[in-house]
């Protein structure tokens, strides 16, 4: 006989909620359970032999109908209450075994199955990020880095550079500098130096010179001077001397002479005199004499002659 939710087949009688009551009215002393296979439930329901009812299939299971028992929902599918077949998990979601509903892919993970049916979220790879509720991981942009399971890109810190798809910041090499968010190192400009992991160029100090891409200041050579913030050392002019790491030329003292690019004063030779700032010795004039390191000619005294 046909019932509301299915059919019990037993001696031509409908068996359901009123099975026991009907048996008593007919004078049947013992009531046995309907035999297995005698229940024909509609899809989405199943036969409960304990209460002689056709129950709705529980969430997390599907019921094909007939005399089949509830079947656990497989991985990659979900089964709402009353399901007669599993539903494929949609993109951007995952469905574990006996899933009652799809679960959104959490941040740091992606659910990439193009046809759905994802059983569990997949961690985002290094160099990529996953904001959540996504089927695809996104490449980390230049100027940022993305560690494993990154939820969002992280800006490259100062002193480091981050090409596209970086999983971690790369230290800035010597002779270059990297500001925050740098995707590649920038060459250290002239007149500056940049050590390893430099965040910004540093001005060349006085007494040193810094060509382009300098990793450290270069001391000024003897016979040259470096005023600072310069890429080239300058030759010491005549009449001055410049020791090593000279910040500025020093005027040649009296009694000495200083040709161009002098690193130290040269004593004036005998027969010559050297005033302050002399670039070469001057001959002692007639009627005078000049000893070694003479600052000026001295008149010939009485009783002597000075040719």
Automatic annotation (TrEMBL):
Listed SMART domains: Ephrin_rec_like
Domain of life where this protein originates: Eukaryota
Annotated InterPro entries: Growth_fac_rcpt_cys_sf
Signal peptide boundaries: 1-23
Alphabetically ordered keywords of this record: Signal
Protein name as it appears in the record: Uncharacterized protein
Organism of provenance: Guillardia theta (strain CCMP2712)
Lineage: Eukaryota, Cryptophyceae, Pyrenomonadales, Geminigeraceae, Guillardia
